[in-house]
Amino acid sequence: MIDVVPASVTLTDAIIPYDVKPVALQLTLQNGGSEITFSGEIRVRTTTRPASQISSVQVVYKDRTGAGSNKISTSVKGTAAGFDDSFTFYAFSAPISSQSSISSFTVLITLGSGATESYDNNGAGFPMQDTIMLQKPQSCVTDSGGQKLLTVTAAVRLPATSAELTLSLKVPRDVITPELQSQTVAMSQKTIIGPYNIVTGTYLLEGSQAENTKFDVSAGQAKDTFKSTGDLGTTCVPLSSTGSSSSSSSSSSSSSSSSSSSSSSSTSSSSSSSSSSSTSTTLSTSRVSTSTTSQPSPPPSSTSTPSHPGYTYQGCYTDSTSARVLKGKSQSTSSNTYASCATYCTGYTYFGVQYGSQCYCGNLFSNPTAPAPKGELECNMKCSGDSTKVCGAGNRMNLFKNQAAGPMPVNNVAGWSYTGCYTDSTSARVIKDKYNYDNALTIERCAGLCKGYKIFGTEYANQCYCGNSYAGPTTKVQDGECGYTCAGNVAQACGAGNRLSVYTAV
Questions:
Q1: Which residues are CB-neighbours of 167 under 8 A, at least 6 positions away?
Q2: pLDDT of 23-66, one tens digit each?
Q3: Cα angle vertex 97, ends 92, 99, to 5°?
Q4: What gap in Å lies between CA 301 and CA 388, rounded to an integer?
Q5: pTM of the model
Q6: Which 3-state string (H, E, C) describes 324-362?
Q7: Beta strands 104-111 and 222-228: pairing type?
Q8: Are 173 and 180 in contact, with CB atoms under 8 Å apart?
């Protein structure tokens, strides 16, 4: 903002991030329909108050009638930093009754001194709606004759019976940026489980739409919004109309009730302070009982480099929920380890572990990636199946390469010969007589576009460049640096960021 705002303009004060912000909240109906899993994370700003001063973070929720004060414990999931601020994320996942359900919640922070802070969204509480819920385990993206079939399942609370799936699709056009189109699909009723109708909607996706499409599910005015196809697995898990909660879930529920009872005096004190205060933060000197609250466990403290036999560790790399780097196949499991992910990815060149419980496989990089800015410090979440190891973080992946993997695939096409992987620059294109942005790009499609030219190059998975000569300096590099899969054929390599897979006419 240097020298761009006229002197007559009055700027507001600097924007300060919320001290507490709930993120990634989700309600999910469980087998049998008697319970809903309430999960998510609480982002706590630790810029001025370090996480070491926080004893516990709890979610305190009310049922769908607005009654009750039920507590859910959290544990440290990871950390993040941006500009001048630092944050710690506290994750939670707990069963609640599908009949009484939830309407809103507040966040209770207990400090090491025993003081508590209650965050209640300026007195309104953080709202939750249970009229319609995306069923992520029952939703997936599968192969379907060269396209990707998106199946979205949702739970709609009775007596509602109808629901809609709305997609925001990126459609290629003759300029670099794609067109954004909205598509609405009616969802059909499948069965009734507990107090919910189970509905499903399907849609065929093309090219990279399978990885970067946002969607909502809605029933009347109620919506579960801004979901991403990149977060879905490749298998839809059935939802049973029968089933009972596990003993661990029952124990967790009982513990939560006990915690609520033993801490009622402290909660009452915080509520009283909140009603007389004009801010969203209240302080209380009442000590919350520690008999039902445990100190969150930190990430593994080991500084050893991650390793797995038969694989070369590449490092902590960036990823994106809307543009996955590895998209051969994926799974999310509560027993995720390096060994289990490597076994799951047998036959693939790469495997990556992410967000503690996620495993991704691929032969090439399907979207841009780079080493995380702060290196290994940004991959700090414990593996769900081995708490002594780290398994990435949010949009961060511990990446491994199979030592037995062969060379990069060479995809010759009639009339052309593969020349190699070459450097390029967005500010000084090496091949620039003609270009096209194509979310269904293949080597054959680029060759067809460049008919009559002497050279063509594919770059960044979906870019095609044609020319009769190199327009600027370039250097041939190892084929492995052109490691992005073509947007229209994951078996082909189409360059990378500032890297061209070059072909010469013969």
A1: 150, 182, 183, 184, 185, 203, 213, 214, 215
A2: 999 999 999 999 999 999 999 999 988 999 999 999 999 999 99
A3: 140
A4: 8
A5: 0.53
A6: CCCCCEEEECCCCCHHHHHHHCCCCCEEEEECCCEEEEE
A7: unpaired
A8: no
